[in-house]
Amino acid sequence: IAKLMSIAFAENTINKTYLAVVRGFAPKSAYIDYPLSRLLDKLADKDRNKTLDPQVAQTELTCLNQVELPFPSGRYDKSRYSLVELNPKTGRKHQLRRHLAHLRHPIIGDTNHGDGKQNQAAREFLNLNRLALHAKSLEFIHPVSSEKTIITAPLDETFSNLLNIFP
Asked: Of the N and C termini of the chain, which has fewer Cβ atoms inside 10 Å?
């Protein structure tokens, strides 16, 4: 079963859906087709060729809601956030985080690809001390029964509380 599921992931036949809260007012919809360089692990990939070409990486984005809040972040006296739904079409390391940073709408709480001033404001005013990303669901054809299978994950308390900022 694990081998069949690995093949399904490799062939991109598994639909993955995520929710994220990002900086600024994201576009209503976007198809991000932006190749990503490989992020190699220091230990596991120490003997691997370091000069590999970027890999195809594609993500669909849908903006679900937007809000402007009356607290400062960086040079702005108000903070803008968007709630987005993300559907990665490929599976690259940190793909969603890197694609949203490329759009200049980094995920709130992203310490590697995000905005430090926005993250600080979110900690201070929203009590958010983690990445604002939630793996909502996986949808695939079951490898044994051939039935459509949907696995969903409930929102944790922190993410659920964060969603309360949206009207």
From this structure: C
